[in-house]
């Protein structure tokens, strides 16, 4: 599957193993990776410097909510998918329409969701 060829995808994930799996899946699909960012501050710093075409966002970053990152992505018009163990109930306020992948998820489901987001 090469539906993400050349797409720049921001990865926001605090678990190193999950971040590596996400990165591998996206690279296999042809994407280029921005990050991964493990904290809200890192993610916001990357967004200040880079312009991703899509993002994968973990809601809970070592106990810190990633809502500020979701807000920043939405404000810039950057589509994102939320990867979380909390399901759709855990979505940040104002982001109820964002696609959710329940952890653990199949990497193919992640790439398919991002391909849909990128049109």
Quick description:
The protein is built from 4 helices and 7 strands, in the order βαβαβββαββα. The chain is α/β, with parallel strands linked by helices and 119 residues long.
SS element count, helices: 4
Major β-sheet annotation:
5 strands, parallel
CATH class: Alpha Beta
Question: What is the count of distinct domains?
Answer: 1
How are strands sequenced across the largest beta sheet?
A: 2-1-3-6-7
CATH topology: Rossmann fold
Report the β-strand fraction as a percent range. Answer: 15-25%
- CATH homology superfamily name: Response regulator
* Sheet/helix structural class: alpha/beta
Are there runs of 5+ residues with pLDDT below 50, and where?
A: none
- H and E order: EHEHEEEHEEH
N→C terminal distance: 15 Å
- What integer is the average pLDDT? 91
Radius of gyration: 13 Å
CATH architecture field: 3-Layer(aba) Sandwich
The number of E-state strands comes to 7
> Which bin fits the share of residues in helices?
25-40%
Shape by Cα distribution: globular
